[in-house]
Amino acid sequence: MAAKKISSFHPPQRVLMGPGPSNINPRVLAAMSLPVIGYMDPAFVDMMAELKTLLRYAFQTDNQLTYPISGPGSVGMESCFVNMVAPGDKVVVCRNGVFGGRMIENVERCKGTPIIVEGTWGEPVDPNAVEDALKKNPDARIVAFVHAETSTGCVSDAKTLAEVAHKHDCLTIVDAVTSLAGCPLKVKEWDLDAVYSASQKCLSCTPGLSPVTYSDRVIDYVTGRKDKVQSWFMDLNLILNYWGHTVRTYHHTAPINGLFALHEALLLLKEEGIENTWARHQRHYQALKAGFEAMGLKFLVKEEKDRLPQISTIMVPEGIDEAEVRSKLLSEFNVEIGAGLGPLAGKVWRFGLMGYTANSANVMLCLSALGSILSKMGYPVKVGEAEAAAHQSYANQHTSMAQKARSRS
Amino acid sequence: MAAKKISSFHPPQRVLMGPGPSNINPRVLAAMSLPVIGYMDPAFVDMMAELKTLLRYAFQTDNQLTYPISGPGSVGMESCFVNMVAPGDKVVVCRNGVFGGRMIENVERCKGTPIIVEGTWGEPVDPNAVEDALKKNPDARIVAFVHAETSTGCVSDAKTLAEVAHKHDCLTIVDAVTSLAGCPLKVKEWDLDAVYSASQKCLSCTPGLSPVTYSDRVIDYVTGRKDKVQSWFMDLNLILNYWGHTVRTYHHTAPINGLFALHEALLLLKEEGIENTWARHQRHYQALKAGFEAMGLKFLVKEEKDRLPQISTIMVPEGIDEAEVRSKLLSEFNVEIGAGLGPLAGKVWRFGLMGYTANSANVMLCLSALGSILSKMGYPVKVGEAEAAAHQSYANQHTSMAQKARSRS
Ligand SMILES: Cc1ncc(COP(=O)(O)O)c(C=O)c1O
Ligand SMILES: Cc1ncc(COP(=O)(O)O)c(C=O)c1O
After folding, report:
1. CB-CB: which of B106, B110, B255 is closest to A206?
2. For residue B1, what are the CA distances in angstroms to A51, B4, B263?
3. Is A36–B24 a contact, with Cβ atoms under 8 angstroms apart?
4. Measured in angstroms, how far is the CA atom of residue B104 from the centroid of ligand 2?
5. Measured between beta carbons, which residues in chain A are less than 8 angstroms from residue B330?
6. Mutation test of ligand 1: which of A75, A105, A150, A210 has the most ligand atoms closer than 8 Å to its C-beta?
7. Which residues are annotated with the PTM N6-(pyridoxal phosphate)lysine (chains A, B) (predicted)?
8. Mean pLDDT per 10-residue run, chain A (409 residues)?
9. How far apart are CA A383 and CA B303, in angstroms?
10. How many other β-carbons are positioned within 10 Å of the β-carbon of residue B342?
11. How far lies A36's CA from each of A247, B327, B372, in Å?
């Protein structure tokens, strides 16, 4: 067989309504394709300073050490663990989805001892269970949890969990990969210690960057460690020389174009205003939810208050081939949604409305595409009903906003 | 002080003649800014297959496991070490520059024992010294060396070093960050085991990706390891499920836009033909060298055969403020060159002609800018002499190529 001739790649145009990456604003794409400059260029160094300022705004913190790690969210996660967990350390890890499980893996590979607080997939982490674990393990040093579990669509109460941890003299490691910019995350007000995120979710930037922020407590601990951090690349003591101080020394080559893009994505967030961005995610989630409910579809996460607006996990109705639905959404409508992970594989779909993707056109496209596919597969849904419900939701929200505005003035 | 208002970043337009990143071909920049798609999208999966094929061509190998790691060259390096070095393993590491030193750090952090073969900065690694080390340490498992030392501009004889290693039953870890696509690197013919590179040097792609290739010997070793690789992110056993097999499962989110760019950069290499790319680097290096010599400047690497065409390390003439020269090149001519690293800091400049940057316009710009700056600083150079020498070099090369072509026909 002759080898296929390879030519330039032309990606199809997709609406990305899965668990990330989300669609990227053209302004961000344009920034990414600006000519590269050196990572020690004075112009680049100025941009790094702005990036840190913008990231502090996104995280709602004034932590000095707030910067983007040159790697995907998983590297952000591993960076927190390798720097903060020394061999033998006890770490309370809360698992109510896939990513809590990944945290456990990280603790083990750092030769720490994970104290696992098992939760139910689709329910928030239980602060009482964490308190119990800490009482039983007074020598635990760290509490680690996922703020927004992308695998279930459930949010946990990061503020309360951090309070419990600090009461027991523990530092916190918080996964904010999916929460950052999608729902309230207040690093300073909630007093979180090490928080990592990723670029491709509600920031709608190119995948491959992991914004992180560390409290001074974390820096004190890491700079005071006697043993060497097991990863050279992730060792904060070395990275501080590039991102932390004013005199910069070479550590590794920064992903320059990706950072151009992140700068622009964060600027868009700043321009919209983070509260407005949170509210936008809520608004479109409400409309999408109205549509799902009109179709008789059920959420995995039962309590409204526990649901993430940026990712809705929907139970696959009985008798429906879930993979076929996803594949038709993609091939017939160019809409990508997510499958279930781990024990939820085959049982749920995940619909993301993250960042730039969160708009009414996408809500409508998704509901009408899904309705059309499901009805052809024999699922009892009247085409048009879901869209009508979504429109009604937008209208109701509009009215209630107007009423609120009136009552304020 | 009021915070400065942040607006969109507009990078200056630079000619990148340092040790990388190099300038990026507009075709590659355009590819990078194409709309993002999902990392499990069938279209993306097809592109991944092409990427692997193109990377095999660049590495001159048919290794099955050849793929781009989602991180800079340093992550490529660390990935090789964490997967291949278990606690207690003896690893012969050759150090004749900065990056050999980084390899030693990696061995130590994997709790291996480095057997250091110290070399002279600016000279190639001595195969006899490696052989001696292996004779003294018959239980060594790995030999690690840098093919192209970016900190000195020196190339080592990878083929012979690999022969010595294999004679003593050792696997090889080879740093090809700067060599890939800039000078001959023949992974299959030279029988190299684990080879990592980076995207931002002679491939002239965006920084932040690390192409790697592993022989079956490496895969057998890693899949057969009883203990767990200390890094979750870099564990080849997990990554194989995404890049290695036909059924893909989620591991981490791939840097999609960066991979679009890498695909295009590798396609450009394929279109030019790798031998032609190597020859292009040689041709422009010869001209640049002629210009340097006309100015009376000296190379750190004495022997012509040991010099890397893609990076020339030049001794700073006595009495010249090296930092001022670099800063003027940047501010007056938009030309970035590199400073010396480690013990060479303040003593040398590094002039890169990597990938897309390697063309005659840049050679001429660099020589004329440098001549102008040096002469104003009182260094005895006649403006125009270096350029004339470079032109003469191009002309001579042209004649000798024509002669060769005639004698072949
Ligand atoms: C909650 C959470 N944590 C961590 C990650 C890992 O991020 P990445 O895929 O960028 O490595 C993800 C990615 O989906 C996530 O949703
Ligand atoms: C020989 C060599 N090895 C490793 C690296 C590290 O690559 P990166 O800076 O992309 O992490 C470099 C970068 O300059 C290099 O020149």
Report:
1. B255
2. 19, 9, 46
3. yes
4. 14
5. 41-42
6. A150
7. 201
8. 81 98 98 97 95 98 96 98 98 98 98 98 98 98 98 98 98 98 98 98 98 97 96 94 75 96 98 98 98 98 98 97 98 98 96 98 98 96 94 95 84
9. 77
10. 11
11. 22, 18, 26
User: Which of A270, A294, A310 is the endpoint of a domain?
Assistant: A270
**Structural domain range at position A97:** 26-270
The CA distance from B70 to the nearest CA of chain A, in Å, is 7
CA gyration radius, chain B = 22
- Name the 3-class secondary structure at B227: coil
Characterize B270-290 residue by residue with b for buried, 16 or more Cβ atoms within 10 angstroms of its Cβ, and e for exposed.
beeebeebbebbbbbbbbbbb
pTM (whole model) above 0.90: yes
Q: Which regions of A177-234 does DSSP assign to beta strands (E)?
A: 194-196, 210-214
Q: How far is the CA of A178 from the centre of ligand 1 (A)?
A: 7
Query: Is B350 a known ligand-binding residue?
Result: yes
**Shortest CA distance from B232: residue in chain A:** A106
| Domain end (from A270, A304, A330) | A270
In a domain, residue B112? The reply is yes
Q: Ligand 2 centroid to B74 CA: how many Å?
A: 6
CB neighbour class for A293 (10 Å; exposed up to 12, middle 13-18, buried from 19): middle
Residues B326 and B308 in one domain: yes
For the question of an ipTM over 0.85, the answer is: yes
Q: Please judge whether A32 and B228 are an interchain contact, meaning their C-beta atoms are less than 8 angstroms apart.
A: no
Q: What beta strand segments (E) does B37-129 contain?
A: 65-69, 90-95, 113-118
